[in-house]
Amino acid sequence: MTSSLWYSSMASTSIPGLIIFCTSFYIQKLESAQFSVIGPDQPVTAVVGQDIILSCHLSPRMSAENMEVRWFQNNFETYVHLYRDGRDYYEQQMPKYQKRTELLKDGIMDGNISLKILNIERADEGQYNCFVQDGITHDETILDLHVAVLGSVPLISVEDYQDGGIHVVCQSAGWFPEPKLVWRDPSGQHLPSVSETKAQKDNGLFEAATSIVIKEYTNSSLSCWIRDKYLSQGKESAVYISDQFFPWVNPWMVALIVILVILSGFLVLIIYFCKLRTSSIILNLPTYLPFCLSVHCLYTINTIGVEKRRHLSRAGKNCASCGERKESQSQVSESSS
Protein backbone atom coordinates (compact mmCIF):
# COMPACT_ATOMS: atom_id res chain seq x y z
CA MET A 1 0.00 0.00 0.00
CA THR A 2 2.78 2.40 0.88
CA SER A 3 4.84 1.55 -2.20
CA SER A 4 1.88 2.09 -4.49
CA LEU A 5 1.31 5.49 -2.97
CA TRP A 6 5.02 6.27 -3.49
CA TYR A 7 4.92 5.33 -7.18
CA SER A 8 1.77 7.33 -7.72
CA SER A 9 3.35 10.30 -6.00
CA MET A 10 6.46 10.03 -8.18
CA ALA A 11 4.36 9.78 -11.34
CA SER A 12 2.29 12.79 -10.34
CA THR A 13 5.42 14.90 -9.75
CA SER A 14 7.40 13.67 -12.83
CA ILE A 15 4.68 14.28 -15.38
CA PRO A 16 4.47 18.04 -14.75
CA GLY A 17 8.27 18.23 -14.77
CA LEU A 18 8.45 16.41 -18.05
CA ILE A 19 5.87 18.72 -19.53
CA ILE A 20 7.80 21.76 -18.32
CA PHE A 21 11.05 20.36 -19.73
CA CYS A 22 9.54 19.60 -23.13
CA THR A 23 7.84 22.96 -23.26
CA SER A 24 11.00 24.85 -22.41
CA PHE A 25 12.99 22.82 -24.95
CA TYR A 26 10.43 23.52 -27.64
CA ILE A 27 10.38 27.22 -26.80
CA GLN A 28 14.18 27.30 -26.88
CA LYS A 29 14.11 25.58 -30.24
CA LEU A 30 11.60 28.09 -31.58
CA GLU A 31 13.68 30.96 -30.24
CA SER A 32 16.84 29.60 -31.85
CA ALA A 33 15.04 29.35 -35.20
CA GLN A 34 13.73 32.90 -35.10
CA PHE A 35 16.58 34.71 -36.83
CA SER A 36 17.53 35.56 -40.36
CA VAL A 37 20.92 36.36 -41.83
CA ILE A 38 20.90 39.70 -43.63
CA GLY A 39 23.48 41.03 -46.09
CA PRO A 40 23.68 43.94 -48.53
CA ASP A 41 21.17 43.90 -51.38
CA GLN A 42 23.68 45.45 -53.80
CA PRO A 43 27.12 44.21 -54.89
CA VAL A 44 30.06 45.45 -52.86
CA THR A 45 33.00 47.05 -54.70
CA ALA A 46 36.56 46.98 -53.42
CA VAL A 47 39.77 48.49 -54.79
CA VAL A 48 42.91 46.40 -55.20
CA GLY A 49 45.33 47.02 -52.37
CA GLN A 50 42.69 48.38 -49.99
CA ASP A 51 40.64 46.73 -47.22
CA ILE A 52 36.94 45.88 -47.47
CA ILE A 53 34.24 44.94 -44.98
CA LEU A 54 31.58 42.43 -46.04
CA SER A 55 28.52 43.34 -43.99
CA CYS A 56 26.34 40.63 -42.40
CA HIS A 57 24.06 40.62 -39.34
CA LEU A 58 21.27 38.74 -37.65
CA SER A 59 17.66 39.87 -37.61
CA PRO A 60 16.26 40.41 -35.10
CA ARG A 61 19.32 41.60 -33.30
CA MET A 62 20.65 38.92 -30.95
CA SER A 63 23.99 37.67 -29.70
CA ALA A 64 25.98 35.46 -32.06
CA GLU A 65 28.78 34.87 -29.57
CA ASN A 66 27.94 31.19 -29.11
CA MET A 67 26.89 30.49 -32.69
CA GLU A 68 28.90 29.21 -35.60
CA VAL A 69 29.71 31.84 -38.20
CA ARG A 70 31.19 30.57 -41.45
CA TRP A 71 32.22 32.68 -44.44
CA PHE A 72 32.89 30.61 -47.56
CA GLN A 73 32.79 30.80 -51.35
CA ASN A 74 32.31 27.65 -53.40
CA ASN A 75 33.32 25.01 -50.86
CA PHE A 76 31.67 24.78 -47.46
CA GLU A 77 34.59 22.89 -45.91
CA THR A 78 37.42 25.10 -47.17
CA TYR A 79 36.26 28.42 -45.82
CA VAL A 80 37.26 32.03 -46.03
CA HIS A 81 36.83 32.43 -42.27
CA LEU A 82 35.34 30.31 -39.48
CA TYR A 83 34.21 31.36 -35.99
CA ARG A 84 32.89 28.71 -33.58
CA ASP A 85 32.76 28.06 -29.84
CA GLY A 86 33.85 31.60 -29.14
CA ARG A 87 37.07 31.55 -31.21
CA ASP A 88 38.43 31.64 -34.77
CA TYR A 89 39.58 28.54 -36.67
CA TYR A 90 42.18 28.60 -39.44
CA GLU A 91 42.92 24.91 -40.05
CA GLN A 92 40.85 24.57 -43.25
CA GLN A 93 41.05 28.19 -44.35
CA MET A 94 41.68 28.85 -48.06
CA PRO A 95 45.41 29.55 -48.53
CA LYS A 96 44.92 32.90 -50.33
CA TYR A 97 42.99 34.28 -47.32
CA GLN A 98 45.47 33.29 -44.64
CA LYS A 99 46.33 36.23 -42.37
CA ARG A 100 44.01 38.45 -44.46
CA THR A 101 40.63 37.97 -42.74
CA GLU A 102 39.12 39.17 -39.49
CA LEU A 103 35.64 38.62 -38.04
CA LEU A 104 34.61 41.91 -36.44
CA LYS A 105 33.60 40.99 -32.91
CA ASP A 106 32.86 44.46 -31.59
CA GLY A 107 29.20 44.05 -32.48
CA ILE A 108 28.84 40.30 -32.18
CA MET A 109 26.62 40.66 -29.09
CA ASP A 110 24.18 42.61 -31.30
CA GLY A 111 24.29 40.06 -34.09
CA ASN A 112 26.89 41.85 -36.22
CA ILE A 113 29.06 39.20 -37.91
CA SER A 114 30.74 41.25 -40.65
CA LEU A 115 34.01 40.06 -42.20
CA LYS A 116 37.00 42.27 -42.96
CA ILE A 117 39.34 41.26 -45.80
CA LEU A 118 42.75 42.93 -45.90
CA ASN A 119 44.76 43.95 -48.96
CA ILE A 120 42.18 43.11 -51.63
CA GLU A 121 43.39 41.21 -54.70
CA ARG A 122 41.76 40.83 -58.10
CA ALA A 123 41.28 37.10 -57.40
CA ASP A 124 39.02 37.98 -54.43
CA GLU A 125 36.17 38.94 -56.78
CA GLY A 126 33.13 36.66 -56.64
CA GLN A 127 30.31 35.44 -54.39
CA TYR A 128 30.58 35.09 -50.61
CA ASN A 129 28.26 33.14 -48.31
CA CYS A 130 27.59 34.32 -44.77
CA PHE A 131 26.39 31.19 -42.92
CA VAL A 132 25.20 31.14 -39.30
CA GLN A 133 24.22 28.07 -37.27
CA ASP A 134 22.79 27.82 -33.78
CA GLY A 135 22.21 24.24 -32.74
CA ILE A 136 20.12 22.63 -35.43
CA THR A 137 18.99 25.99 -36.82
CA HIS A 138 20.88 27.81 -39.54
CA ASP A 139 20.47 30.48 -42.18
CA GLU A 140 22.69 32.19 -44.73
CA THR A 141 22.89 35.02 -47.25
CA ILE A 142 24.93 35.56 -50.39
CA LEU A 143 26.66 38.75 -51.47
CA ASP A 144 28.71 39.72 -54.54
CA LEU A 145 32.11 41.37 -54.38
CA HIS A 146 33.43 43.38 -57.33
CA VAL A 147 37.12 44.23 -57.43
CA ALA A 148 38.36 47.32 -59.25
CA VAL A 149 41.87 48.39 -60.24
CA LEU A 150 42.54 52.11 -60.41
CA GLY A 151 44.97 52.95 -63.19
CA SER A 152 47.35 55.81 -63.79
CA VAL A 153 46.62 59.53 -63.56
CA PRO A 154 45.45 60.75 -67.00
CA LEU A 155 48.21 62.16 -69.19
CA ILE A 156 47.10 65.14 -71.32
CA SER A 157 49.11 66.09 -74.41
CA VAL A 158 48.64 68.77 -77.08
CA GLU A 159 48.99 67.11 -80.48
CA ASP A 160 48.42 69.56 -83.34
CA TYR A 161 46.08 72.09 -84.94
CA GLN A 162 42.83 70.70 -86.30
CA ASP A 163 39.56 72.19 -87.56
CA GLY A 164 40.46 75.70 -86.48
CA GLY A 165 41.39 74.63 -82.94
CA ILE A 166 43.91 72.60 -80.95
CA HIS A 167 43.76 68.79 -80.88
CA VAL A 168 44.23 67.55 -77.27
CA VAL A 169 44.62 63.86 -76.27
CA CYS A 170 44.10 62.21 -72.84
CA GLN A 171 45.57 58.75 -72.08
CA SER A 172 45.58 56.41 -69.07
CA ALA A 173 46.42 52.72 -68.44
CA GLY A 174 46.12 49.98 -65.82
CA TRP A 175 42.34 49.98 -65.19
CA PHE A 176 39.89 47.19 -64.42
CA PRO A 177 37.15 46.84 -65.37
CA GLU A 178 36.85 48.98 -68.51
CA PRO A 179 36.95 52.64 -67.41
CA LYS A 180 34.93 55.64 -68.56
CA LEU A 181 36.62 58.82 -69.80
CA VAL A 182 34.98 62.24 -69.72
CA TRP A 183 36.10 65.73 -70.76
CA ARG A 184 34.80 68.45 -68.45
CA ASP A 185 34.87 72.24 -68.48
CA PRO A 186 35.60 74.33 -65.35
CA SER A 187 31.90 74.20 -64.37
CA GLY A 188 31.84 70.39 -64.53
CA GLN A 189 29.82 70.14 -67.74
CA HIS A 190 30.69 67.24 -70.02
CA LEU A 191 32.28 68.08 -73.36
CA PRO A 192 31.94 65.96 -76.51
CA SER A 193 35.05 64.10 -77.63
CA VAL A 194 36.07 63.57 -81.26
CA SER A 195 37.50 60.08 -80.69
CA GLU A 196 37.81 57.39 -78.00
CA THR A 197 39.68 54.06 -77.90
CA LYS A 198 39.92 51.28 -75.29
CA ALA A 199 41.96 48.07 -75.29
CA GLN A 200 42.49 45.20 -72.83
CA LYS A 201 46.07 44.03 -72.47
CA ASP A 202 47.45 40.56 -71.76
CA ASN A 203 47.42 41.21 -68.01
CA GLY A 204 43.66 41.84 -68.15
CA LEU A 205 43.95 45.55 -67.48
CA PHE A 206 42.57 48.25 -69.75
CA GLU A 207 44.18 51.28 -71.31
CA ALA A 208 42.09 54.08 -72.80
CA ALA A 209 42.50 57.30 -74.77
CA THR A 210 40.19 60.12 -75.80
CA SER A 211 40.67 63.34 -77.75
CA ILE A 212 38.97 66.69 -78.18
CA VAL A 213 39.39 69.82 -80.31
CA ILE A 214 39.18 73.03 -78.31
CA LYS A 215 38.51 76.44 -79.84
CA GLU A 216 39.63 79.90 -78.78
CA TYR A 217 37.44 81.63 -76.15
CA THR A 218 35.40 78.45 -75.62
CA ASN A 219 37.08 75.53 -73.84
CA SER A 220 40.67 76.64 -73.41
CA SER A 221 40.51 75.38 -69.80
CA LEU A 222 39.37 71.77 -69.39
CA SER A 223 40.02 68.53 -67.51
CA CYS A 224 40.10 64.82 -68.37
CA TRP A 225 38.34 62.64 -65.79
CA ILE A 226 38.61 58.84 -65.84
CA ARG A 227 36.69 56.65 -63.42
CA ASP A 228 35.93 53.04 -62.69
CA LYS A 229 32.73 51.38 -63.87
CA TYR A 230 31.63 50.46 -60.33
CA LEU A 231 32.97 53.36 -58.29
CA SER A 232 32.23 57.06 -58.41
CA GLN A 233 35.85 57.79 -57.57
CA GLY A 234 38.43 58.27 -60.28
CA LYS A 235 41.45 60.30 -61.32
CA GLU A 236 41.60 63.66 -63.07
CA SER A 237 44.08 65.92 -64.84
CA ALA A 238 43.52 69.49 -66.03
CA VAL A 239 45.08 71.66 -68.71
CA TYR A 240 44.88 75.33 -69.63
CA ILE A 241 45.88 76.54 -73.09
CA SER A 242 46.60 80.24 -73.48
CA ASP A 243 44.94 82.15 -76.31
CA GLN A 244 48.31 82.88 -77.88
CA PHE A 245 48.59 79.22 -78.89
CA PHE A 246 45.43 79.35 -80.98
CA PRO A 247 45.58 80.15 -84.70
CA TRP A 248 45.10 83.97 -84.81
CA VAL A 249 42.45 85.01 -87.34
CA ASN A 250 41.12 88.60 -87.60
CA PRO A 251 38.02 89.18 -89.81
CA TRP A 252 39.41 92.49 -91.09
CA MET A 253 42.67 90.81 -91.91
CA VAL A 254 40.84 88.12 -93.83
CA ALA A 255 38.94 90.77 -95.84
CA LEU A 256 42.16 92.65 -96.56
CA ILE A 257 43.89 89.49 -97.74
CA VAL A 258 40.98 88.68 -100.05
CA ILE A 259 41.03 92.20 -101.54
CA LEU A 260 44.80 92.04 -102.06
CA VAL A 261 44.49 88.70 -103.79
CA ILE A 262 41.82 90.08 -106.13
CA LEU A 263 43.85 93.21 -106.90
CA SER A 264 46.93 91.12 -107.50
CA GLY A 265 44.96 89.02 -109.97
CA PHE A 266 43.81 92.11 -111.86
CA LEU A 267 47.35 93.51 -111.88
CA VAL A 268 48.72 90.28 -113.33
CA LEU A 269 46.07 90.32 -116.05
CA ILE A 270 46.82 93.96 -116.95
CA ILE A 271 50.55 93.29 -117.18
CA TYR A 272 49.90 90.22 -119.30
CA PHE A 273 47.66 92.03 -121.77
CA CYS A 274 50.04 94.99 -121.99
CA LYS A 275 52.94 92.72 -122.83
CA LEU A 276 50.76 90.91 -125.33
CA ARG A 277 49.80 94.21 -127.03
CA THR A 278 53.39 95.44 -127.08
CA SER A 279 54.52 92.26 -128.76
CA SER A 280 51.73 92.57 -131.33
CA ILE A 281 52.70 96.17 -132.22
CA ILE A 282 56.37 95.33 -132.64
CA LEU A 283 55.65 92.28 -134.79
CA ASN A 284 53.24 94.22 -137.03
CA LEU A 285 55.32 97.42 -137.28
CA PRO A 286 55.22 97.75 -141.16
CA THR A 287 51.48 98.19 -141.09
CA TYR A 288 51.95 101.30 -138.95
CA LEU A 289 54.46 103.00 -141.32
CA PRO A 290 51.92 104.66 -143.72
CA PHE A 291 50.37 106.39 -140.77
CA CYS A 292 53.53 107.34 -138.92
CA LEU A 293 53.31 111.00 -139.95
CA SER A 294 49.61 111.35 -139.24
CA VAL A 295 48.09 112.79 -136.08
CA HIS A 296 46.51 109.45 -135.31
CA CYS A 297 49.91 107.76 -135.49
CA LEU A 298 51.40 110.34 -133.13
CA TYR A 299 48.51 109.84 -130.68
CA THR A 300 49.07 106.12 -130.79
CA ILE A 301 52.77 106.57 -130.19
CA ASN A 302 52.09 108.77 -127.15
CA THR A 303 49.73 106.25 -125.61
CA ILE A 304 52.10 103.29 -125.74
CA GLY A 305 55.22 102.72 -123.67
CA VAL A 306 58.57 104.47 -123.92
CA GLU A 307 60.15 101.55 -125.64
CA LYS A 308 57.34 101.37 -128.17
CA ARG A 309 57.78 105.08 -128.92
CA ARG A 310 61.48 104.51 -129.54
CA HIS A 311 60.75 101.79 -132.06
CA LEU A 312 58.16 103.91 -133.84
CA SER A 313 60.44 106.99 -133.76
CA ARG A 314 63.14 105.06 -135.55
CA ALA A 315 60.57 103.80 -138.01
CA GLY A 316 59.40 107.41 -138.62
CA LYS A 317 62.92 108.63 -139.37
CA ASN A 318 63.43 105.80 -141.79
CA CYS A 319 60.13 106.76 -143.42
CA ALA A 320 61.23 110.44 -143.81
CA SER A 321 64.59 109.56 -145.34
CA CYS A 322 62.83 107.16 -147.61
CA GLY A 323 60.52 109.98 -148.80
CA GLU A 324 63.41 112.38 -149.43
CA ARG A 325 65.21 109.81 -151.52
CA LYS A 326 62.11 109.20 -153.57
CA GLU A 327 61.66 112.98 -154.13
CA SER A 328 65.29 113.50 -155.21
CA GLN A 329 65.04 110.57 -157.56
CA SER A 330 61.93 112.03 -159.16
CA GLN A 331 63.63 115.44 -159.60
CA VAL A 332 66.66 113.82 -161.26
CA SER A 333 64.44 111.89 -163.61
CA GLU A 334 62.59 115.10 -164.58
CA SER A 335 65.83 117.03 -165.26
CA SER A 336 67.18 114.25 -167.36
CA SER A 337 64.07 114.20 -169.41
UniProtKB/TrEMBL annotation:
Its main location: membrane. The chain crosses the membrane at residues 6-27, 252-273, 285-304. It comes from the Eukaryota. GO terms for molecular function: signaling receptor binding. GO terms for biological process: regulation of cytokine production; T cell receptor signaling pathway. Pfam families: C2-set_3, V-set. PROSITE patterns: IG_LIKE. This is Selection and upkeep of intraepithelial T-cells protein 1 homolog isoform X16. It comes from Alligator sinensis (Chinese alligator). The lineage of its organism: Eukaryota, Metazoa, Chordata, Craniata, Vertebrata.
